[in-house]
Fold this sequence. Notes:
The protein is α/β, with parallel strands linked by helices and about 300 residues long. It has helices at about 25-35, 85-100, 120-140, 175-180, 190-200, 220-230, 245-250, 270-290, and strands at about 10-15, 45-55, 65-70, 75, 155-160, 185, 205, 210, 255.
Amino acid sequence: MTQSGGSHKCLIIGLSGPSSSGKTTLARLLREIFTIPASPETSNRSISLTIIHEDDFYKTDAEIPLITTPTSNTFRDWDCALALNIPSLQHTLSHITTHARLPPSLTSKEDQNAVGPHGVPETTILALKAEARTWLTALNLPAAADDDDEGGQISLFILDGFLLYPSPSPSSSLPQSIPSLLPLKLFLHSTRAQTLSRRLARTGYVTLEGFWADPPGYVEEVVWPNYVRDCGWVFEGGDVDRGDVSAEAGGVGVRVGPIRGGGDGEGEGGMEEVLGWGAREVREGVERWVARRGGGEVRRSA
């Protein structure tokens, strides 16, 4: 079944933000909420959510660019567009758009990287899943194009990555073809103190050929400065700590979530609020996307 069939819904959602902001945690929670099989209760409609990790598109370890920082430290820079296999990522997104499934050649190493406890009560997750089930049943989907078309099946894909929304500036190192394939663009906000605290607490990352642990100074001299350089345009005046969304980012549909935990890096928590925001954004994004394809608004009970 392909997207060209007419009623099989395939929507790719971008989920970006600084390192250790909770992107993968949120993506996995949303997958739990928006995986609903067809049943009489849902009027035989179903929805699925598959995660694509931008980290699965890194180049080989030896191809990661070497840089020298202003303090004369030399590092492999894993936090820039030049570290990514952009053509492979573009191919994957195009394949999903056309076929509503992952390319058979894609295998993920990212699931080998641990994420910490999310802290969201199970009751909240179950309530959000029940809300999603009711919403799915009420969604006004377009009629099936033919007898073989699975008109009640919606396939969601979340692309989880640190660099998805390049500045509209022509000098951006990430091609605009990437965000153009992401009708819904979500962004998690995190302050410098939070990012450094969370990233420094990580043990490391599985890579294509081995394992990477941040050397001393890497987070402060590479991770954070690269984030400010590449994503500062999302916020007014480039003030990524304050977090006021710029008119430029709002104009291209970037939607920034509530900040998680204390701004000073302490008092971690708040994923419950972020998850509620993310689930709402997904529902509303699907509604807008379905409406553009010939459906209507959600049929809401009185």
